Amino acid sequence: MPIDRAAICEDFLRKGINAIRKETEYKAAILYQALEHHSILSPFVKEKHSQSKTVIVAHCGDRTEKVNEYLKSHGLYAGDGYGVLKKMQLRFANFPAHSKEQFELLVDSIEKMK
Question: Which CA distances in Å does 33 have to 6, 7, 12, 94, 105?
């Protein structure tokens, strides 16, 4: 099924930039909080003022493959890390097309994984 880009743009215009920004900040905040309080995962960027709101990187250490498989089993897909840290990190895109509900499911799944 082809993507209806016009409908997506219309939806973004209807929501408005302020609502989109608030939603992006909310989704980033709940994911960073889950990572900060997790026993296995942690935010790769520790300084809050330097943390990206749109690409959130989780440090997984030697458990990255296990974490990734767990998330996939719940229908959640993360991106790989880069370079020498590729096998130690997962990246989560936080774009307007990702709903709050999707992020809440991600956070719930992460919190259940210990």
Answer: 34, 33, 26, 15, 14
What CATH number is attached to the domain comprising 30?
A: 3.90.1150.10
What's the pLDDT at 25? Answer: 98
The pTM score is: 0.91
Q: How many distinct structural domains can be found in the chain? A: 1
Q: Which residues of the chain have pLDDT under 70?
A: 1
Provide the domain limits for residue 66. Answer: 5-112
